[in-house]
Amino acid sequence: MDKGKSSVFSAVLKEAAKPDLSSPKAQPDLVVSAETANAMYDSMYGVMSGAMSPKEAVQLVQRTLK
Q1: How far apart are CA 33 and CA 41, in angstroms?
Q2: What's the CA gap between 38 and 61, in Å, rounded?
Q3: Which segments within the chain are labelled E, that is strand?
Q4: Which of 11, 14, 28, 50 is the most exposed, fewest CB within 10 Å of its CB?
Q5: CA angle, residues 20, 26, 27, in degrees to nearest 5
Q6: 30: Cα separation from own chain's centroid
């Protein structure tokens, strides 16, 4: 990997290689209902694609938590 071309990715890999890095016991989508997990995915991809704003994404997920 060229650190000059991928400086952010290089920094992420450096952090991930640290021995004291902890990991969650389960992925966040595995400890919520299927409805909430689907809303999480829809919200992330919605924001990444520009189909919804971050505020709309949060509201989408929050509706499944009530």
Answers
A1: 13
A2: 9
A3: none
A4: 50
A5: 100
A6: 13
Cβ 53 vs Cβ 47: under 8 Å = yes
Compute the distance between CA of residue 55 and CA of residue 30 in angstroms, rounded to an integer.
23
**Helix 54-65 with 34-49: angle, nearest 10 deg:** 180
Summarised one tens digit per residue, pLDDT across range 7-63 is: 899 898 888 889 888 878 888 888 999 999 999 999 999 999 999 999 999 999 999
Q: Is 63 helix (H, G, I), strand (E, B) or coil?
A: helix
Distance CA 47, CA 49 (A): 5
E strand or H helix that includes residue 36: helix 34-49
Among residues 43, 42, 37, the alpha carbon closest in space to that of 55 is found at 43
